[in-house]
Amino acid sequence: MSDVTYCLNPDLDVDALAAAYGTSKRGQVQQVLPSDVAEHLFEVLVNRVPWQLTYFDGERDQYMPIEKLQAMSPQERLAFGQERAQLAQRGFSYCYNTFKFHEAFEAGEYPDHPLRAFDAFLNSDELLAFARNLTGDGEINAAGGHATWFGPGHYLNLHTDKIGGIDRRAAFVLNLTKVWRADWGGELKFYADGGGRIEEAYPPAFNVLNVFTVPKPHAVGYVTPFAGGPRLAITGWFYVDESGK
Predict the structure, then answer these.
(1) What are the structural domains, with CATH classification, of the chain?
(2) Mean pLDDT over residues 189-199, rounded?
């Protein structure tokens, strides 16, 4: 498919969406992009992304080209998986595929990558105004995202998205998963009582934007070994940038 112009679905009822969001500080926007735009973005994720496996080693983020993982012997893969499981049992941990395009583009990498146009769209007047109207946070003035691919055995444990140094106001997940069954896992789960109770869960979907106010305890559920397709999304945050960029 040829390049498209990124834009929001002009038929969105932003007032109704904002009213629903104001009640729970989270919400879903169905058919957020025009259908041809969503299809184009899906094709880019499937065919044009240099995926890496990212995982937590107990102290910091780690990255591995997926080709390196695929080249491991069965014994090496088993040991790697066991190490991930042991960390996940004890607390915060994660393991999934990613492409941190926003950071890469800011560093001058991938000058001709097709996601550059989408990265610009994230910081367009149109989308930032939509984020402010939806969340009720008039100070949001920037956004950044990364592509994610959760497959069998992947997960992202309980966390809040609150970090030092970045004034995140809301998180978003642009779902681009075409085929998914509820029993494959991979839900975006929201927790109450400090993580002791699940309030609500959003299954993977296509052309659906999930947005929620930060901080909020949440997780991506474990994707079962028998999951029959990729859980594709673009995940990121709307935040306040005071640098004047």
Answers:
(1) 14-240 (2.60.120.620)
(2) 90
